[in-house]
Design brief:
- By secondary structure, this protein is mainly alpha-helical.
- The chain is built from 3 helices and no strands.
- The longest helix has 74 residues.
- It is elongated, with a radius of gyration of 49 Å.
Length: 156
């Protein structure tokens, strides 16, 4: 509502709600409320960005864990193959130690059992005794260290 003067000279307009407030004051209020809205939008964007980064981090870690699990599975499969080859090689080696097979291989190569004049026996004496040498007495410090190592070996 306008009072006192013409429209051409009056620079401020009054609203019907509050006769003493001008439109310019409402604009400043709107600017402060628009700043709040902008701040809220910035916070929302920042929160969404943070949530995206967290989700990306979780997915990245999950991918890394999956990759390591796949490597572990591959290594286990390789270990099983190698273990199977070891068992196969042991079975083959046991088969190679068969006396009949060794005898046939020796005949094929032209080998014959040794003659009596090719064999020499070594006499170790009539007694089966051993001679014990007395070891030097270690120093007290070395003896202590040796005792401690024996105790630690017993504990572990």
């Amino acid at each position: 509502m306008y009072t006192h003067g013409s429209n051409a000279l009056k620079s401020e307009y009054y609203t019907a709600d509050a006769p003493g407030e001008s439109v310019q004051k409402k604009k400043t209020v709107r600017k402060s409320s628009s700043k709040k809205v902008v701040r809220m939008k910035k916070r929302a964007v920042a929160l969404m960005l943070f949530a995206f980064l967290m989700a990306f981090t979780v997915l990245f870690r999950y991918a890394a864990i999956t990759e390591e699990y796949n490597k572990l599975t591959t290594a286990r499969e390789e270990l099983e193959l190698i273990s199977a080859k070891v068992v196969e090689t042991k079975v083959q080696a046991e088969g190679d130690m068969d006396p009949k097979r060794i005898e046939k291989e020796a005949e094929r190569l032209g080998l014959r059992p040794p003659l009596k004049n090719q064999v020499e026996y070594i006499s170790l004496g009539n007694t089966d005794n051993g001679e014990v040498l007395k070891a030097e007495e270690p120093s007290a410090f070395v003896a202590f260290i040796n005792r401690m190592s024996v105790i630690l070996e017993y504990l572990y």
